Amino acid sequence: MAKRIKRRAHSLYNSSSTAYDYDDSFYDDKEELRRRKAIRQAVRKAKIIKFKNLVYGAKFTISVLCVFAGCIVTMASNAAVDRQRVINNGLKDELIAIKSQNAVLTSKINDNTDLEYIEKEAKTRLNMTEPQPYQIVYIDVPKQSYTVQYEAEEEKNDDNFGLNSFFSVIKEIFEIL
Fold it and tell me: Is residue 155 part of a domain?
């Protein structure tokens, strides 16, 4: 290696015929810096690759957990649907039993509302007799009772609906003209 000559602050100009020695250490330092820079870049790239691998691993793990959670939710919903299906089938069976019971009760009601059967049971089992003429009381119902008025108003409301009301309005217009 060549010897370095220190420059002094007061001498900025070389007035002699000799040149300064060539300093190789400066270029050796550049090579060392390039080598260190390459090593730092390699380490940085390794860290980046390691970080990317960590990120990809985390994404993969989250994806697997999401798929697993989706499977759990699907299985739970299927179980709920199956449970509801079993409940519905039980209710359908109960409905069929109630309908058959209703049919039996309806037939009993129809049998028991037969007037001849009722008269026979009243005379035989309850020892009832027909009313005597002095026991019969007749009541006069006025023509304007509440039910008659109510039914008349209801019929009027039905006539004022739809096409009938439209045609009645047109007839009234032509009668006025």
Answer: no
